[in-house]
Amino acid sequence: APPRPKNWIDTVEEAALELTHPVSEETDGNRALWIEVGRALCAVFLGKTGEFRQITDQAMIRFEKSRGVEEFFLLRGFAIDPEKQTQDYARAVERCPHHVLGRYLLANQLANSGGYGKALTEVEKAVRGWPRVPLFYTLRGLIRQQVQDPEGALTDYTRSIELQPENFPALLNRSIVYSGMSRWQKALEDLNICLRMNPGSPWIYHNFGIIRMNLEKWEDAISDLEKALQLAPKDWSNRPEVERLLVQARTREKPH
């Protein structure tokens, strides 16, 4: 995502000021709904959780039967109620079955909570409805990785990359699938593309290190793993794993 401008808070506050007062009952319904969406977004960006809840709760009642009310379900799930995300995303998709973002968020949330079967069902619907959206193939690839279907994951990542050649997540994850199949050269090819796209990613060097350990290129592996630790933030979730691999590489022990 592009960096926010230095004055982004001022910009949002100005927008919020323009939308200070709830719209009147006389305002055109569709326009009124989107003004309330704007007010809710401003509250999210400014960290005004209480105001956000008030806006969304009132809007859900006022626009209950209106087209577009699903946006409030998406906002509520995305912004403040992680424990109700699945329910909110499901209601959004129920209200608007052709909502691309809603379908993606629902499938992604189901996968994150371990409901891979239901997630796969949702993403299958998405692929049928939007066969040229690479994001859905990438998500289905991730789910298939989790359920130990590497061939299916490989097919999905490849299709996603065909639709969007500079698709960093799909390329990175396809390299992991190739590694799991011991197709080292293919994995390296994908990682080299990733490196050109995002040379500061510790994930790339982590995966380089694993591949080169398997190829018994120990010095290169050590260099890669050290680079991953150097680039990664202190709270990086994979730091313990990379530190463990580094010890193994220094003792010439293949990863397991």
Commentary on this structure:
With 256 residues, this protein is an all-alpha fold. Mean pLDDT is 87; it is low at 1-9. The protein starts with 7 loop residues before the first helix and ends in a 6-residue tail after the last helix. Helix 7 packs antiparallel against helix 8. It is built from 14 helices and no strands.
Biggest sheet character: none
Overall, the morphology is elongated
- Strand percentage lies at under 5%
What structural class should be given to the helix and strand makeup? mainly alpha
The residue ranges in which pLDDT falls below 50 over 5 or more consecutive positions are 1-9
Q: Helix proportion of residues, in percent?
A: over 70%
- Number of helical segments with 4 or more residues: 14
Query: What is the count of β-strands?
Result: 0
Task: State the end-to-end distance.
Answer: 35 Å
Mean pLDDT comes to 87
Radius of gyration: 22 Å
Order of helices and strands: HHHHHHHHHHHHHH
In a few lines, what is going on in this structure?
The protein is mainly α and 256 residues long. Helix content is 71%, strand content 0%. α2 packs antiparallel against α3, α10 packs parallel to α12 (202-214) and α13 (218-231) runs antiparallel to α14.
Keywords:
256 residues; elongated; disordered N terminus; 14 helices
Secondary-structure map with pairings?
Layout: H1 8-18, H2 29-45, H3 49-62, H4 70-79, H5 85-95, H6 100-112, H7 116-129, H8 134-146, H9 150-163, H10 168-180, H11 184-197, H12 202-214, H13 218-231, H14 239-250
